Structures are given as structure tokens and as C-alpha cells.
Amino acid sequence: MEHDRNLSIDPADQLRLVDALARGASRRDVLRLMLSMGILASSAGGILSHATKAHAQAPRKGGRIRAATTSSSTADTLDPAKGANATDYTRHNMLYSGLTQLDATLAPQPALAEEIRNDKATTWTFKLRKDVKFHDGSPLTPADVVYSLNRHKDAATASKVKTVAEQFAEVQASGPNEVQVKLAGPNADLPVILAASHFLIVKDGAKDFGAGANGTGPFKLKEFKPGVRSVMVRNDGYWKPGRPYLDEVELIGIQDEPARINALLSGDVHMVLAVDPRSTGRVKSTPGYAVLETKSGLYTDLVMRQDAAPTSNPDFVLAMKYLIDREQAKNAVFRGFAVVANDQPIPPSHRYYFAGLPQRPYDLDKAKFHLQKAGVSGSVPVFATAAANGSIDMAVLMQQSAQKIGLTLNVNRVPADGYWSNHWMKHPLGFGNINPRTSADQLFTQFFKSDAPWNESGWKNEQFDQLVLAARAESDEAKRKKLYGDMQVLIHEKCGIGIPVFISFLDGHSTKVKGLGSIPVGGFMGYMFAEHVWLDG
Amino acid sequence: MADKALAGRLIAQRIGLGAVTLLIVSAVIFTITNLLPGDAAQEALGQSATPETVAALRAQYGLDKPGPVRYASWLGGLATGNLGQSFTASMPVADLVAVRLPKSLLLAAVTAAVSVPIALAIGILSAMWRGGALDRALNLITLSMVAVPEFLVATLAVLAFAVKLRWFPALSNAVDIKDAGQFFRTYAMPVLTLCFVVIAQMARMTRAAVIDQLGASYVEMAVLKGAKPARVALRHALPNAIGPIANAVALSLSYLLGGVVIVETIFNYPGLASLMVDAVTNRDMPVVQACAMVFCFAYLLLVLVADLVAILSNPRLRHR
Questions:
Q1: Can you tell me the distance from the alpha carbon of A458 to that of A495, in angstroms, rounded to the nearest whole number?
Q2: CB distance A74–B88 less than 8 Å?
Q3: Looking at the partner chain, which of A73, A229, A420 has a beta carbon nearest the beta carbon of B46?
């Protein structure tokens, strides 16, 4: 077993685990148990595959799966740099491979790079796997990797991760099978960042993604009709031996949620993304179908601009945070498929989650106290939209609570169309919706640092900025965790962001689809299901 | 010969007017889509837009030029048969439309083939026996068909025939159709839903037109001469009612081409209407313009055909 060298748990813990497994604990129970023991995330998979091998069903080769995501339009793309939604990410992960890949705990695992070394988290060397071939038969070379990483810096590529790629000071081949990335500053999270679908490796010089896709991924492109469907067939030369299991995958987008559920339950598709919490009962009660919950770092947050009245008043911010009934948001808005949050953007499942903060309660007295201290009365407008999942319902809940302490919140529902360019971050009080970021550094840099492009509340805190830089350069895991903890405390106490709950991803699937799990980047196993699942005969 | 000259003049006149209409429609659509908040570059980059990437993408799309210049260059392209390049799909608009248009035409054709005969039969039958039990029953049915919104019909049909009975698929992707059986399974539910909407309208217009003629004095004359009711209705009244009927059919058919976005959404049918809605969402102006032109052209064509049918079927106009 290649994982054996990672096994680093003491004998007593091992005993507890084996015991739990003997008692018939589920995979998830064991994972929880292991997390409580503080076992290194990367070793979890190893132990589990040891322990559950006897019970596991052998994967079956062959079969065709049809999977439906939430959208498909003429904006569909084969260019990983432009990937904009779940449909794109899923398609790209089938066609291309990255240097690294995330596992169920969001820890980076080697993929096209079989070995990763770093010097002070600034100079990174990636030793490439040998014998990797593109779909056109050409071998993977350092030039392909250099091109794939550098193209994001060119504005003409219109890459979604241009701001992230700007830290690549220099990318160059440092040997026949090696690529060296020099960063502008230290960043210990680089292997996590490079696992994003935008950084998947394309062929050197690839510019025209209109017609074809030449990658090293588990599937080859058979048909691509934007807005209609994409069909992928197995790549027999895939670099992971034995994978993938499926012969063919058809990916379509069904925007209408009821239509998506109907397509699943009528047997037209095997898997659907984004089941509405209200539909889970219907899916579960139909024999042969199940719902997969992936607890994630996705959140819809209340944005209180620090450069506008009345939200710049720290007491008003606190009043709003006490006004959020998080339990009710979890149960009424998301039917329980959510985890109560504490105004800290890192979810409890994340390795850098800081558990030491007391939960901020729903407390009308405290809210009233801070509101009066802020001297705000009368009515305040709040902007909500269907584009920010659950924001309209949460705004209405807050409106009812506010009424009890003599504050009128006017809920303005604005259209989802154009919300991000016209409303988001433009009103004193509004809602945002932040997709999970795999790297804590990325989350803090993009959304909380003073100069962050999407600093939602316009929050400026020098101490926080210094902590971001310090944590980025810190490769000692324990020290890093401590720094991230301090940052979460600052956000919890001072930032103009209220995070009521972390929203779970819900997938619906036929029980014939085996091998499914959770990779909390998103639904569909973090959009990587295609190489993991197989179809039961 | 008179009818040929009349038809020729009418066609020439209509083509001229049609070209002007298309020009006006394109200008209006261009102006309106420009008024929408955000542009293609902002929509494409979404939450991750930075001023730099937006500017780069705008330059790539040619959105950095002023509106009138863009409109003029689009018009110039259209004149030479070039519909331009889609912003979001990075492929020629003509290719996108070429995939979707045949699908829309096919759905419209199948629906028309099913609905027109049924609608005419219902209309003529209820006109012949107007006020009778049959007429009242058909009235009730068609009125309730008009009253039920199509998304409800479609959703109920999916629940009953796809999810519960599993007779038909819930989706009509219209790809991989190999034989007649598959064709039937794919088209059954969308066509059923659309028939619900259009049959009722056409049937009611037909009934009104035929009843109008049945009250005319030449029909009374025919009845007095001893002609049978069926002969009176079909041979005497119907030819004179064809004008309004053709107009009703033309209106329904133009709806089938461009107005079926709800049915396309529910059944995931890749037609032209949903392409246009997508394009509006993405602010993909060349595609929006092309779709608008196709719909407008189809509408003008159908109305022209209806008018020609009316003229050619009307003995008074024909033999003048």
C-alpha cells in the first residue's frame, strides 16, 4: 500500500478504530472518529481502504452515465481558465488533469506532479509523472505545464484566476521532467491552489478551445455542443491504472430544479446536482434513489459595508449579528441541510477551523442594546436576491426579528440577473454568496484582506493583513493553524460580515451509481465524480 | 391572370415592408439589450471580474467601441450574410443557429401536423352544430385548455407519464434519435403540451369564422336549395372562412417557433427560444440579434403566406 508510510497513529487509537469498524461503523463515523483523534488527514484514506477492503464492493468496469448539472448554455467552454460553473468544472475535470488533486479532507495529493518540493514556500519544484500522454498521443512535457500556468497571467486569456496567478513570478522548466515555480512571495498553499480546475494542464500553445480539448484526463471528448450536451468516452491511456471505470459520460444541464428531479426519478439521468432541500423527501422516498449531502464551506453572508452609514458603526454590525437566528435559518431555510456558523468563514470540517470561539447566539436583548448604542432607528434597506442562495428567506427572518426591537428592515428583492455587477457590495446592507475556497489563504486574500478585490464589507484591518502574510509564509502546520485561528477571531469580532450557516451541497443519484463520496469543493464529489464512480450491473 | 398579378404585387410590397420591419426590429433589440445592466464581459467573468480582465474581454469582443459603430458593423456583416461571432461560445453565430433552428422547426412542424387538423375539425364541427350539446362540450374543453398555463400541463404530464408510468422520458434532448419509436417517445410530451395551447386558440377562431359565414345570405340560399349541412359547411361556408382561419393558424405557428421557451426549459429541448434566452442572460448580443431576426422573419413569412392563402381561396378576390 502506498499509503502505509503515512500511517502515523498510535496503537491505542488504532485499536479504537478497528474496534469501531468491527462494530459496523460507517465510513463517515470512522472519519469523524479519526478527526477527533487528530489523525493526519492524508492518512485517513489509507487506513480506511485497509480496514474496509473486505466489505467493499469491487468496482465494475463499463457502463454509461448521464449526469445533469444546473446550467448549460452557449457560454459552456472547453477552456479550463474560463470555467464558470459546475458544468464547466465537471467537464474540465474529466478532460484534463492537474498537478495536484484534492482528497476528501481537501488536502492536496500528487497528480501529474508525483513529487513536490519547496524552499521557504517560495520556490516550488514539481517533478512530473513519467509516461503521461495527452489524448492526441503526445507526451506530457514541462513546456505544457509552463504554458498552462503562465497563460493565466495574460489578460487576453480572460482567466478567472488571473489575480491568483499573478503571484507566479517565474515559471520555467528546471529539468527534463521538472517545473520550477518561483513565487513573488511565500505561499505554503500552492499545492492546494493548483488543484483548482482552472489550473488544469493543457497542451503547450493551446489557444483555440472552440472545437476540441486535448488533455491528460480520464475521459476524451466525443461530442461538445454548448448549451445542449457534452459526451466524453473513456481514455484507456489514463495515467491512473484501472481508472476510470465508466465507458462514457454524458453531461447535460437542466436549469429548472423540478425538471431536474423529474429527470432523475424517471430514470432519464443517473445523477443530478443541486437538489433543493425541499425536494430531498421526494427523492429519498422513491426506491432506487438517494441524496448525498456534502457539508461544505459554502455560505450566504450578510454584507455590512464599512464605508457607508449606518453599517460602518461597529455597534450596528454587532446588533445585526445578534439578530440572525442561525438555528432557524438552518432548519427553515435549508431544511437542516446546513451547519450553524459563527461569523467565521472557515467551516468546522476544515483543517484550519478555530474551535475556540463561543457561538454567537440569537439574542434580541443584546441586539437592541447595540442598536440603541449605535443610535440607529427608523428603516434600513437590505438587498436580497435569488442569486445568493437563501438570502431572501434569511432577509425576511431578520426583518421579523428586527421588528421586535423596533427596527424596520426593508427587504428589497432584486433580480438574480446582473446581481454581481450591479448590487453586490454596492449597498450598505446586502447579501453575498461565497463558494467554498479550498485554500484558507485564498479565502482570506480574496475576501477579507484590506486590498482584496472582493472585500465584501470594505473592511480594513492592518493586524489581519499582517497575519495573512505571516500565515502564507509559514510552513509549520501547527503555527499556521494558530495564525489562521487568530484571523478567524478578528473576523468574528470586527468584520462587517455575518455568516449565518454553512450550506451543504446536495446531489441526487440512482443507487446504481457506486463509489460516490464527498469532496467538499462542491457537489458531484467536488466535480470530480467521473473518475471515481462505477455503475452497478 | 389577375390573381397572379395581385399576388405578385402583394409579395413585392411585403418583401419591401418586411425588410424595413427587420431593420427597425434589429435597431430596437440592439438598443434594448444595450440598456440591460452589465455587458457580456461582466456576465462572463461574474463574481471574479476585475477591471483589467473586463477591459481585456471587452476589447476581445469589440465592446470597447461605441454602440452605433457596433450596430453598423453588425448590419454590414448581415448584409454580406455574416451573422458574426458569438461572444460566449467563441464560435460563429450561424453555427449555433444552424444547430437549434432545425430543432425548433421540427417541433413546430410536428405540433402543427397534429394540432391543425384537430383544431379545424373541432372548429367546423362546433360551428355546424352551434348551440348544441357537442358545441357546448367542445367549448368547455377548449376554454379550459386555454385557461390552463402550459407549465402546469407540462409538469403534470411529466409527473404522470414520465415519473409515475414511465411511458415517456422526462427530457426531450432530441439527440440520438434512431428510429420512429424513439422519435415518438421523444416528441410525445412536448407536442402534447404545445397542442394544449394552440389547438384551443385555432379551434375557437375557426368556429367563429365558419359561424360568421353560415349566417350569410348565400348560405341560406344553399340551404333553401336543399344542400345537406355537411355540404353547406364544407363546400359553401368554409372556402370563405379560410382567410381568417389561415391568419389564426399563422399566428399559432409563429408562437410555436419563438414562444415555446417554457416547454423548451421543462423538457430540456434544445430549441432556438432557449438559445435566445441564454444569450440575453449572457448579454451575447450577436446571438440575440440573430435569433430576433429569425423570429421576425418567420413571423413576416407566415403572415404573408396566410394573406396569400386568403386571397387565393377567396373567389371574389381571385376572379376580379
A1: 9
A2: yes
A3: A420
Instruction: Say if the Cβ atoms of A417 and B281 lie within 8 Å.
Output: yes
For residues A504 and A253, give the distance between their C-alpha atoms in angstroms, rounded to a whole number: 20
The residues pairing with A13 across neighbouring beta strands, listed in sequence order, are: none
A chain contacts of residue B287, beta-carbon cutoff 8 Å: 74
Is-cis flag, bond preceding A142, omega within 30? Answer: no
Torsion of CA B227, B230, B236, B242, to 10 degrees: 180
Which residues touch B59 (CB under 8 Å, ≥6 apart)?
A: none
| Cα(A527)–Cα(A101) distance, integer angstroms | 12
Angle between the N-to-C axes of helices A364-374 and A391-404, in degrees from 0 to 180, rounded to the nearest 10: 80
d(CA A145, CA A172): 9
Of the candidates A269, A288, A286, which has an alpha carbon nearest to the alpha carbon of residue A511? A288
Cell of B269: 429541448
Residues 6+ apart with CB under 8 A from B191: B107, B110, B111, B114
Q: List, for residues A496-529, the tens digit of each pLDDT value.
A: 999 999 999 999 999 999 999 999 999 999 999 9
What's the CA gap between A379 and A321, in Å, rounded? 17
**Res. A236: pLDDT tops 90:** yes
**Closest approach of chain A CAs to the CA of B316, in angstroms?**
50
pLDDT level of residue A19 (50, 70, 90 thresholds): very low
**What phi-psi label fits residue B268: left (phi over 0), alpha (psi between -120 and 50 degrees) or beta?**
left
The three state secondary structure string of B214-232 is HCCHHHHHHHHCCCCHHHH
Q: CA nearest A207 in B: which residue? A: B90
Contact list in B for residue A254 (CB cut-off 8 A) is 171, 268
Which of B86, B163, B265 is the mutation pick for testing A, counting most A CBs within 10 A?
Answer: B163
**Contact list, B270 vs chain A (CB under 8 Å):** 225, 227-228
Q: Is the pLDDT of residue A3 over 50?
A: no
Nearest CA in chain A to B98: A225
Q: In sequence order, which residues have a C-beta less than 8 Å from that of residue B31 and are 6 or more positions away?
A: B67
* Burial class of residue A448 (count of CB atoms within 10 Å of its CB; 0-12, 13-18, 19+): buried
Report CA Rg, chain A. Answer: 24
Is the bond preceding A348 in cis, omega lying within 30 degrees of 0? no
Could you tell me which residues come within 8 angstroms of residue A12 by beta carbon, excluding any fewer than 6 positions away?
Answer: none
pLDDT tens column, A259-268: 899 999 999 9
pTM: 0.79
Nearest to B89 among A74, A259, A454 (CB): A74
Query: Among residues A238, A153, A239, A161, which one has the least CA distance to residue A194?
Result: A161
3-state secondary structure string across B263-275 = HHHHCCCCCHHHH
Q: Is A252 in Cβ contact with B89 (below 8 Å)?
A: no
Of B88, B169, B175, the CB nearest to A75: B88
| Count of A-B CB contacts under 8 Å | 125
